[in-house]
Design a protein that fits this description.
Blueprint (H helix, E strand, L loop, with lengths): L6 E5 L4 H13 L5 E5 L12 E4 L2 E4 H10 L5 H7 L4 H15 L8
Helix pairs in contact: 2-3
């Protein structure tokens, strides 16, 4: 299934993990349909949640990442699995833990 829609992704540009994730996605987005935009720097860090928007609406956090994967050809099948229970419940939990500690995560050497 093709996804011609462009995505607008608002992310925390002050977060090393978030910047690395952006780089990971951009390397796999051959059609350049995923556009990244830094979150408003005046927004408190704890309120900066990954937001993914397309023409039909938006997704946040874990489901935002699933939407991104749906737009990457080699990752679409994984996205389908992640949207189903129990995987989505596990994914939401992992996302929350990682998001809560993302400031402590540094780029691997």
């Amino acid at each position: 299934m093709s996804h011609p829609t462009q995505l607008r992704v608002v992310y925390d540009a002050d977060c090393a993990l978030c910047r690395n994730a952006r780089t990971w996605v951009e390397r796999r987005d051959d059609e350049r349909r995923i556009l990244f935009e830094p979150a408003d720097p005046d927004t408190p860090v704890e309120a900066r949640v990954l937001t993914v928007q397309d023409a039909t609406g938006g997704e946040f956090g874990f489901y935002g990442w699933v939407t991104i994967l749906e737009h990457l050809p080699l990752w679409r099948r994984l996205a389908g699995v992640l949207r189903r229970r129990p995987m989505c419940l596990v994914g939401i939990g992992i996302y929350r833990i990682v998001a809560a500690h993302r400031g402590r995560m540094k780029r691997p050497r």
